[in-house]
Design brief:
Domain TPR repeat: 316-497
Helix content: 55-70%
Distance between the termini: 111 Å
Protein name: TPR repeat domain-containing protein
Organism: Streptomyces hoynatensis
InterPro entries: TPR_rep_actino
Number of helices: 35
Strand content: under 5%
Pfam families: TPR_23 (PF23275)
Oligomer: single chain
Radius of gyration: 40 Å
Largest sheet: 2 strands, antiparallel
């Protein structure tokens, strides 16, 4: 017997599409039989939740404890949910809006599932033709009908032959009439053998059965393609509408990633939204509002996991398996160029300097990558699950050595420039992130940033078209969101050496890494074990940075890069200077050796538990590096030093009994002497290198510190930063233009700036001069060196200045 059964599997394989499978998967995704009960949960939750943001959580909680609800009263006759049902009214306009959109989303799902079932099993709704399941049954029956005509035709031909008797050769082939696809046709059928009496045997050959089967199967296959196309259209229309509802719900504060209505977070929805995003990005002029809509799911997951997504954030819970699968599926739709294009959109040219849709969408995508690669947030661990990460991400962070950036002699070629632009786009993308990366991913990004930067810096050694690198600074900016990982990188000797020996077209990312890794985070006790990695990173940075002075100052940068303005080390220089200012209390300590001290060192009882010391040569090397930095950075640093001196002196004078005054003066003198020594040495090595401090910096420092002096009779000590000068005082330092203007009344030699700063601090702390005369401000018009010196010496009669001058002279050994 021939086989005229066309299985669904066979049809789908032949058609290359799967209408039955797609319909079954969609029904399993929607679960229409549960939709009424889901609506009932929201109806109850709408009456209990205090805000739209709580609605999903309350509905989930009710679903978990209710043991079942009956939502039949909320359904219309057609199985959809009554949008006007009394139970679906919330507390307030936003709640009503959320419930209204949820009901519409549920009904959209119910109706689409019904239509998809109809397209496959009954009527192909867009055309009115029978559905593929109907056609399959029809064509199976049609094949049998065709086969039956050949059976009848063969019998008729045999009967006709027999009736002819001996007038014909009975072994001759028979002319048999039958039908294929209901079309009459005739075939010559030879005998297939003889019977026991020697007569011929005739039977319909298998080839005719195969032909019948083939023709009818083609009809089913064509129907399958049509049904699949229309099913796809219906589902895509539903998914587009669902994405729109999701955006509206997100704007109303509803958490799409929670609640019993989980259709926003299915893998199928993720794949659709990822594909739509990729398709939009491929356009010459992408619609940024659509791009924002296609990333709403990413934002929903982030909002559900992070209570605060600013400045790093800490996960409040890990992702669910569904949320992680959503991210993995979504990013699986995005290619290398898609991620790069998102970075380009982050710098939205239509909204310069504004929070634009392009920037918001890029930040969502970057944050999603941070979550997907962070095991603490429920994502994958790159160290052990790297094969689960998107190929597009791996291209930039893990497989960069196999790209055109590292091809043999790539510089200046079109492939190199094209690849560099792609890397730049990805760097721009990651720089928008507001969620901190996991420890391993942060570390991997840091290494990728430096390695790619060093490779692309080699382009400046030749004469060809250059493509500046933004990738490195972008990845370091993202890395810096993880403080622990940043400290870990700076405490890695190999990384630190390479990092400090690398020049940057834009060193903002390098600066961000330094600040993140050396500044003890808010809420961490500076004297705790948790703070030790940051103090260690600060020591390692300040101790090792002078070894790379030529690169950090730009002296050893390739001339081509400098001449064309492709190098800017100022942010890096400033970050090193800021770190030195923050830890100046430790740098100022006398020591013959450098090192991170044992927190229980018996030689320093009562001191900082986490501390380091720099020897005189290492301190001088650090100050020499800052002296040879750019003029603006250098002046900022020197003004910062004076502010530190003023703050340190003020605290010592304001402390009851002044038990630490002599130590403070010793430290101030040591730093002042180091500044002077470095300036003198630089001046002897060539004109233009000297950078003696001006007395105007004392006025600047006095103004800055006075802003934080408590307005009370009792002078209280100032606290700023973990160890030394903090961001509050640091931010009051004047601009370069202001500094230059004050240079006109500067006294540019000796220990007078430090002594004046101490005298001003003493005055602010309440130390009174004979006759109650005020100390002359160094920037007062017409002030002379003699005027200021006389006032300072008068003030010094109230305390022992020798500790400052002795330390100053010891440090200024020129």
């Amino acid at each position: 017997m021939p086989n005229f059964s066309f299985t669904r599997q066979e049809v789908e394989a032949k058609a290359g599409v799967k209408p039955w499978t797609l319909q079954e998967q969609f029904t399993a995704e929607i679960k229409p039989e549960d939709m009424g009960n889901t609506a009932a949960l929201y109806a109850r939750a709408a009456g209990e939740a205090e805000s739209a943001g709580e609605l999903a959580q309350v509905a989930s909680r009710l679903g978990a404890r209710s043991g079942g609800v009956d939502g039949r009263t909320l359904l219309d006759e057609d199985g959809t949910i009554k949008e006007t049902a009394r139970g679906l009214q919330g507390n307030g306009r936003d709640m009503d809006g959320v419930v209204r959109y949820l009901v519409r989303a549920m009904n959209e799902a119910i109706e689409t599932e019904h239509n998809v079932h109809e397209i496959v099993y009954n009527v192909d709704l867009p055309t009115g033709d029978p559905g593929v399941e109907v056609v399959r049954g029809q064509e199976e029956q049609g094949a049998w009908n065709d086969w039956a005509t050949w059976g009848r035709g063969l019998q008729a031909a045999v009967n006709e032959r027999n009736a002819a008797g001996n007038q014909v050769n009975h072994l001759m082939p028979l002319e048999v009439h039958g039908e294929i696809m209901s079309n009459p046709t005739t075939r010559s059928i030879p005998s297939s053998g003889t019977n026991a009496q020697g007569g011929p045997i005739f039977q319909i050959p298998e080839s005719i059965a195969e032909e019948i089967r083939k023709e009818h199967l083609e009809v089913v296959v064509d129907s399958a393609k049509s049904s699949h196309s229309h099913v796809n259209e219906a589902i895509n229309s539903y998914r587009y509408q669902l994405a729109q509802y999701g955006q509206e719900l997100g704007d109303l504060g509803y958490d799409l990633s929670e609640g019993p209505f989980g259709l926003f977070m299915t893998q199928q929805q993720a794949a659709y939204e990822g594909r739509q995003l990729a398709a939009e990005l491929a356009k010459a002029h992408p619609d940024k509002n659509l791009i924002l809509m296609w990333t709403e799911g990413l934002e929903a997951i982030a909002r559900g996991i992070y209570e605060d997504m600013r400045d790093g954030g800490t996960p409040s819970r890990p992702m669910t398996a569904q949320e992680r699968a959503f991210l993995q599926t979504f990013y699986g739709q995005l290619g290398i160029d898609d991620l790069a294009e998102l970075g380009e959109l982050a710098g939205d040219r239509d909204h310069p300097g504004q929070a634009s849709p392009g920037l918001a969408a890029a930040r969502r995508v970057a944050n999603g990558l941070m979550m997907l690669t962070n095991p603490d947030a429920g994502g994958f661990d790159p160290a052990t699950q790297g094969n689960q990460l998107p190929a597009s991400l791996r291209h930039f962070v893990y497989d960069y050595e196999h790209t055109d950036l590292f091809a043999q002699q790539p510089f200046g070629t079109s492939p190199f420039r094209h690849e560099m632009e792609r890397f730049n786009g990805f760097g721009d993308l990651m720089a928008t992130a507001s969620i901190a990366p996991g420890d391993r991913f942060a570390t991997d990004m840091g290494h990728a940033a430096v390695e790619v930067q060093r490779q692309t810096n080699m382009q400046y050694t030749g004469s060809h078209e250059y493509t500046p690198n933004r990738f490195g600074t972008g990845l370091l900016t993202a890395t810096a969101l993880n403080h622990e990982a940043s400290a870990g990188l700076l405490n890695d000797g190999d990384f630190r050496s390479t990092f400090l020996g690398t020049f940057w077209e834009n060193s903002n990312g390098a600066a961000a890494l330094i600040h993140s890794g050396t500044h003890v985070p808010q809420g961490v006790d500076p004297n705790s074990a948790a703070a030790r990695p940051y103090v260690q990173a600060a020591y390692n940075l300040l101790h090792d940075a002078p070894d790379s002075k030529g690169v950090i100052t730009g002296d050893l940068v390739p001339p081509n890069a400098k001449a064309l303005g492709y190098v800017d080390q100022s942010a890096l220089q400033r970050a090193i200077g800021n770190t030195a200012l923050e830890y100046m209390d430790l740098i100022a300590r006398p020591s013959e050796t450098s090192g991170l001290r044992d927190p229980h060192d018996p030689d320093h009882p009562g001191g900082f538990r986490n501390l380091f010391e720099l020897s005189t040569p290492d301190r001088e090397a650090l100050f020499s590096l800052m002296n040879e930095s750019g003029s603006t950075v250098r002046n900022e640093f020197l003004d910062g030093v004076t502010t530190w001196e003023t703050k340190t002196a003020y605290n010592a004078f304001a402390e009851p009994g002044r038990p630490h005054l002599n130590t403070a003066l010793d430290h101030i003198g040591r730093i002042a002497g180091t500044v002077q020594h470095v300036g003198v040495v630089a001046d002897t090595e060539g004109p233009g290198w000297a950078s003696f401090r001006s007395m105007s910096s004392v006025s600047s420092a006095t103004s800055a510190v006075s802003l934080f002096v408590p307005p009370t009779p009792a002078k209280l000590a100032l606290t700023a930063g973990s160890y030394g000068l903090g961001e509050m005082i640091r931010s009051q330092i004047p601009t370069a233009a202001e500094i230059d203007a004050r240079q006109q009344v500067a006294l540019e030699h000796g220990d007078m700036p430090a002594r004046t700063a101490v005298a001003q601090a003493a005055r602010m702390a309440g130390v009174r001069m004979p006759g109650h005369q005020s100390l002359l401000d160094p920037s007062t018009p017409g002030a002379t060196e003699a005027d200021i010196r006389a006032r300072v010496e008068t003030m010094e009669n109230n305390y022992d200045i020798k500790y400052l001058t002795e330390a100053y002279n010891d440090a200024n050994h020129t």
